[in-house]
Amino acid sequence: MKAELAQAWAGFWGQRTDREKALLTWGGGALAAVVVWSLLWAPAQDARSHLKESLPSLQRQLAQMTAQANEAHSLAAAAQGVAPTGAALKDALTASLGEHGLAATQVQFAGSAVQLHMKNVSFPTWTAWVDDARRQFKVQVSEAHITALKDDGQVDLTVSLQPSTAK
Known about the structure:
By secondary structure, this protein is an alpha+beta fold. It has four helices and four strands, in the order H-H-H-E-E-H-E-E. Strands 1-2-4-3 form a four-stranded antiparallel β-sheet, covered by helices on one side. The longest helix has 63 residues, at 18-80. The radius of gyration is 40 Å and the shape is elongated.
């Protein structure tokens, strides 16, 4: 097939005069230049000019998003530093116990601390709650009295939680 194509081309080309050959060569070169221009160069140039026009607005958007991200980080850090105290701490701890499926038989103030009394509580569930409360409300256990029950993992406890002094 390749040989047949080459032979057909040679026959076609051989029948042309020198003037026709020159015109076909120059015409083919011009056609190739138009194809290269329209398929490669022009789209790239148009895309470049579009990017050049949109770059300033994209840079403004980036600067705005960076400023908003920095503000969000600073607000998040500030929000983490605020811990509830007093009645707000008592209410927050009571609500958190309910969210974790725990129920305190008694919640009362003991100085600046909140004292919780709980009976027949799953110890693993309670320790998970204490860890969550420690992170969320910035409290620490100041005193704990825990009594193991006959059922594995069940305890009666009295614990005092106070606002953490560590930053």
